[in-house]
Automatic annotation (TrEMBL):
InterPro entries in UniProt: Acyl_CoA_acyltransferase, GNAT_dom, Rv0428c-like_C, YpeA/RimI_acetyltransf
The protein's name: GNAT family N-acetyltransferase
Coiled coil: none
GO molecular function terms attached to this record: acyltransferase activity, transferring groups other than amino-acyl groups
Swiss-Prot/TrEMBL keywords: Acyltransferase, Transferase
Sequence ranges assigned to domain N-acetyltransferase in this UniProt record: 108-249
Originating organism: Cohnella candidum
Length: 249
C-alpha cells in the first residue's frame, strides 16, 4: 500500500516528461519542484548486480542535457545501497519529508468557515492566488499550468475566503479512493488563524463526497507549524523520504 501511495503522489503532481531507464523513472518539468524533476528509483527488480556508476551516470547525462541538477528521491522502496552510493558521489541530502495518512474521512469535523470554493479544473484565479501566497515565479506558474491541466484524475482546486478575500488555497487529487493534499498554503499575512485547517476540512469533505475514504500528504519535517496542524487533524506518519542532489557542472 505504501508503494501505491508513491504512485498516487507521482500521478497527482505529474512531470511534463518522463523517461524510463531500466525500471527507473526520470521525471522532468523545466526545473520546477523536486517532485517533478527527480529520479524515482522505485522499480527495477533485483539490483544486486547493477553497475551503479553506469546507471547513475546515465541519469546525470539526461538531466545535464535538460540544464538541470540531478536529483534522486530516496524512499523506502529504492534499491538498497543507492543512497550510500549517491553520497559517495557527492550528492547532498535535502528536505527530509514525512509521508502521513489519515485512514478515515467519515469522522472529519465540519468546517466552521462556510465560504470556500472548489473547482474541478484549474482556473487562472486559483493559480494566481496560489502563486501569490507561495511567491511562485511566472515560470513556475507556467509549468504548474501545464502539469495540472488535462489530468485524468479528479482534482479539487480549493480557495478559502474570509470577508470575501482569499486567505488560503490548496489542491486535492483523488485516485483509487485516496485523496492527496498538495500545495496547501495560507496568505503569509493571515497565518496562525486556523485558516489552513478550515481549508483542509473543506477539501476532505469534498473528497469524501467524491468517493475518497483515505487521505495522504507529504510535509517537510522541519515545517513545524504544518506538522502540528496535520497531527491535530489525525494524520499519522507511515514513512519518510529525502532527496539527494548533485549540482549541475
Amino acid at each position: 500500500m505504501n508503494r501505491h501511495l508513491e504512485e498516487y503522489s507521482l500521478n497527482a503532481w505529474p512531470a511534463l516528461r518522463t523517461m524510463v531507464h531500466e525500471g527507473w523513472l526520470l521525471r522532468l518539468a523545466e526545473g520546477y519542484t523536486k517532485r517533478s524533476n527527480s529520479v524515482q528509483a522505485i522499480y527495477g527488480g533485483c539490483e544486486q548486480t547493477v553497475d551503479w556508476d553506469r546507471k547513475i551516470a546515465y541519469c546525470e547525462e539526461q538531466y545535464a542535457q535538460a540544464g538541470l541538477d540531478t536529483v534522486f528521491k530516496i524512499t523506502p522502496f529504492v534499491p538498497s545501497g543507492l543512497d550510500a552510493k549517491l553520497a559517495d558521489r557527492g550528492y547532498m541530502l535535502l528536505d527530509p519529508t514525512s509521508v502521513r495518512v489519515l485512514d478515515r474521512l467519515d469522522s472529519i469535523k465540519i468546517p466552521t468557515m462556510s465560504k470556500a470554493t472548489i473547482e474541478e479544473t484549474l482556473t487562472e484565479g486559483w493559480l494566481e492566488t496560489m502563486a501569490g501566497f507561495n511567491g511562485t515565479s511566472d515560470h513556475g506558474k507556467a509549468v504548474t499550468r501545464k502539469m495540472l491541466t488535462g489530468s485524468p484524475l479528479t482534482q479539487g482546486f480549493c480557495t478559502l475566503y474570509a470577508d470575501s478575500v482569499p486567505v488560503a488555497c490548496g489542491l486535492g487529487v483523488i485516485e483509487q479512493g485516496h485523496v492527496g493534499l498538495l500545495d496547501i498554503v495560507t496568505d503569509p499575512n493571515c497565518r496562525n488563524r486556523g485558516y489552513g485547517e478550515q481549508l483542509i476540512l473543506h477539501i476532505l469533505r469534498w473528497a469524501r463526497e467524491n468517493g475518497a475514504a483515505r487521505s495522504y500528504l507529504q510535509v517537510v519535517q522541519n515545517n513545524a507549524p504544518a506538522v502540528r496542524l496535520y497531527e491535530k487533524l489525525g494524520y499519522e506518519e507511515i514513512y519518510t523520504y529525502w532527496y539527494r542532489q548533485k549540482k549541475l557542472g
